[in-house]
Write a structure and sequence with these properties.
Elements (H helix, E strand, L loop, with lengths): L11 E5 L4 E7 L9 E7 L3 E7 L5 E8 L2 E5 L2 E5 L4 E4 L5 E5 L5 E8 L1
Antiparallel strand pairs: 1-2, 2-3, 3-10, 4-9, 5-8, 5-10, 6-7, 6-9
């Protein structure tokens, strides 16, 4: 495992679902020995990013860069705007979507 950098605009691009969620994989789990992964997401306005689901092995941390995402963690539902960090612990059902009129951009860290 060696050091590396991923510049702005770099990474493996994936389109998730029906195309409303673009994912840019910045750091893969295999690059960190399974300790973490990092992705940048761009979620179109009025779009579901991910329906309710549960991670059993990893925590998920979202940091909102632009726009606003709505998040459900268990029974709690709230909005997260630029500069907001959201922690979604493993074993707890969660979902996210963009109810706003502009695209949302956010970074996610998965650990371990």
């Amino acid at each position: 495992m060696g050091s590396f950098k991923v510049a702005a605009g770099e990474g493996t691009r994936l389109t998730v679902g029906t195309g409303e969620l673009e994912t840019i994989q910045k750091v893969l789990g295999e690059q960190t020995g399974g300790s973490a992964a990092v992705a940048e997401h761009v979620l179109a306005s009025k779009s579901l990013g991910s329906p309710i689901h549960t991670h059993h092995k990893e925590h998920e941390i979202s940091y909102v860069l632009d726009g606003t995402i709505a998040v459900q963690i268990d029974a709690d539902v709230f909005e997260a705007g630029p500069g907001t960090t959201v922690f979604k612990p493993k074993g707890i059902p969660h979902a996210f979507w963009n109810a706003g009129d502009v695209p949302a951009r956010f970074t996610e860290i998965f650990s371990p």
